[in-house]
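Run: sequence + iron/sulfur cluster -> complex structure.
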Amino acid sequence: MGKTLSDKVWESHVVRTAPGEPDLLYIDLHLVHEVTSPQAFDGLRLADRPVRRTDLTLATEDHNTPTLNILAPIADPVSKLQVDTLRRNADEFGVRRHSLGDKDQGVVHIIGPQLGLTQPGLTVVCGDSHTSTHGAFGALAFGIGTSEVEHVLATQTLPQARPRTMAVNVNGELPEGVTAKDIVLTLIAKVGTGGGQGYVVEYRGTTIENLSMEGRMTICNMSIEWGAKAGMMAPDETTFAYLKGRPHAPEGADWDAAVAYWKTLYSDSDAVFDREVNIDAATLTPFVTWGTNPGQGVPLGGAVPAPEDFADPVDRSAAERALTYMDLRAGTPMREIRVDTVFLGSCTNGRIEDLRLAASVLQGKKIADGVRMLVVPGSARVRLQAESEGLDQVFLDFGAEWRAAGCSMCLGMNPDQLAPGERAASTSNRNFEGRQGKGGRTHLVSPPVAAATAIRGTLSSPADL
Amino acid sequence: MDKFSTHTGIAVPLRASNVDTDQIIPAVYLKRVTRTGFEDGLFAAWRNDPEFVLNQSAYAPGSILVAGPDFGTGSSREHAVWALQNYGFKVVIGSRFGDIFRSNSGKAGLVIAVVPQDVVEKLWEIAESEPGIEFTVDLHHRTVEAADNVFSFEIDDYTRHRLLEGLDDIGLTLQHVDLIEEYESKRPSWLPRTLPAKTAG
Ligand code: SF4
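>> structure
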């Protein structure tokens, strides 16, 4: 029987296997940020252990960092302590770090690919659930907790039970105005937030093959939102073209050796997945969420559902709760929902292509009365790139705020938060209660929907303009 | 890590599905650099609601949480586990859990007992019909004793073994450092390294 892509990557990283125990996997790249690492470095210090492979480790600051006045001392003393602690730890243990003000600082899942460190066939971990993003390159990439961060720092390995495999086949041509974000939001609504639990998922099919690396990352990023351990895509010419010439991409003969290996990374035609899901791209439309988990979504042309629409009693009570929290009435057309804030950014949709797409919709228009829009590039380099293309001016002329790079309102750990009761259209990945600020209400959307919504003030797509 | 064998404590029925880690502890509470003190952020958004289960005096000293399906989905924050432990929880019983949350719990010493949803419903009924009732969780036999009922739960053999013995994962792995070195000696030279740092200038 043939092997799946994830089997191939898994098997090439097994350091030790023993009956009744998880496999011990070697980790090729470990990304570190300020929120989930302080206790791990403390653990090392207590046990008098070094970081085993500083040359496979990279740290950045993103979750807590301000997006205004980034060179001034961080105002919130607790955030400041956490960022200072990362800096101290990285310097003490010899870990490379990209701090605020550095051109390579940014959301951890944006800078790995950008530097060319994220490559096909690697194992990539980070103390962050959206590590699945890196799977877009054909890496096996997953989020870990702080105890595991410490484990990887100390040993460069991780004991892992082997997950099952799933294929998500997406075929056909995407209709105009439909993006990678809509594919993944539709998928999650279809399979539910627990649908991927225990699986490594491979996204494949012609629609996936035709996506840019940015679009592929958007989909892999949200794998965790339906419970999957990791999301992967087979590397191809698009992947190689993206990597070629990046700072840490192999060069010369190394490049040829790498590409020869990367080309072996696909699921064999006779490989069997434990489960398969099919999606017909031609039937997709812009998709938005109405509730408080990423599976509670409908097409933008649809309406807020009623609890009675759900047969499963658990789903029904979840819907009831979500409607109350979101302050929505069943039957309201999604397009009539008015927002206060639009957030364009995050590791889901904060890359240059996302900004270009949104800017192309906004160009020459004015923001709706009473709406504020935050544009937060995913990394300092994305910001520089956007500025060199004049996108910052497009956003500013439109009436949006142009900020420095970081997680920002994706999780509201810094001052960029929703006020209680405020409603946002957000290109991020989580609409959980209070995610973007206590009492804040989030609708997850694609970048073009975010832009059109900022113009009209109600959830909209560019086709509505 | 302390060894875990059996635990008897007050059961807390949390009737909600999809309690993600943002609900267990919101991001604004994650800024500490220690592993302690996170109990103040536990279920923070609900703690002002007098109806919330932990605000009822009978349940407040609880140590066994009976949760709804898909508990602990979402972010990788181990702070969610620490917040539960800092508050005093030793065990969470439920039918489905977020993967990362479950693995973080195993590492930190919080027992995750998986039972079918109909057993969760029964445990909820028992805990609600007699607020403050104690359950006993026996990790050795993988059972929960509630009133006069005994239910079995699932936990994988390896995690159970580690919890029973109180084993430190890193110590276990470092026993195989020779295998790690052998693996490292065979890694292709073109694999990426973060050092020396290269940037686009
Ligand atoms: S942008 Fe949002 S999802 Fe991504 S790493 Fe930051 S907080 Fe997490």
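>> summary
Residues 77-93 of chain A form the longest helix (17 residues). The pocket of iron/sulfur cluster is lined by residues A 62-63, 107, 109, 128, 130, 346-347, 407, 410-411, 428-429 (CB under 6 Å).
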